[in-house]
Amino acid sequence: MIKNSIVKKLNQQMNLEFDSASLYLQMSAWCSYKGFEGSAMFLKRHFQEEMQHMQRIFDYLCDINQQPIVDSVKKPHNNFESLIHLFEKNYNNEKIISMKINDLCELALTEKDFSTFEFLQWYVSEQHEEEKLFKSIVAKLNLVGSSSEGLFLVDKELKNLNEKIERH
Ligand code: OFO
Q1: In the chain, where are the structural domains located?
Q2: CA 71 – CA 12 distance, rounded (Å)
Q3: Ligand 1: which of 22, 46, 97, 132 to mutate, judged by most atoms within 8 Å of the beta carbon?
Q4: Is the Cβ–Cβ distance between 63 and 34 less than 8 Å?
């Protein structure tokens, strides 16, 4: 029988993934409005990925005979000083998600819930990849600073990356 403390944290994580999804959708809207077409596409796809992350936990809770409780989604930030500011916020959000996943893993181990621990391993590697990706975008944006040409090139690179991911 799964411990209530783990069910509670899985539920919180599911809603956190929902919050991330809505934040990335809102970020995509800002990028599109500001003419950063590649970033808008990239973030919209990322929104869909976060919805899948949310659904994985939803399905896991259903599989173990628990009822997922969908909480109200937090109103996301909708105004950003710049593209770098937006991606820094994105990267920080991913670091928070990783921390929460690590806390969940720790709890699962403490409670000897090896099946939940195993389920969470997918998130551990996913977070590693996501942090790496967002960190590299922030680094590129830092390099180009406020140069319009540089911003155009980073945006174009995100468009290409998005297309490459979608082809696979
Ligand atoms: Fe990118 O956060 Fe989900 O897991």
Answers
A1: 4-167
A2: 9
A3: 97
A4: no
pLDDT in tens, the chain (168 residues): 899 999 999 999 999 999 999 999 999 999 999 999 999 999 999 999 999 999 999 999 999 999 999 998 889 999 999 999 999 999 999 999 999 999 999 999 999 999 999 999 999 999 999 999 999 999 999 999 989 999 999 999 999 999 988 887
Structure tokens at 119: 């389920």
Q: Among the atoms of ligand 1, which is closest to the Cα of residue 130? A: 1
DSSP 137: H
The first and second tokens of residue 49, run together, are 């990925």
- Could you tell me if the CB of 50 is within 6 A of ligand 1? yes
**pLDDT value of position 154:** 97
CA distance 104 to 74: 21
Which architecture, in CATH terms, is 4-167? Up-down Bundle (1.20)
Round to whole Å and give the CA distance between 153 and 141. Answer: 10
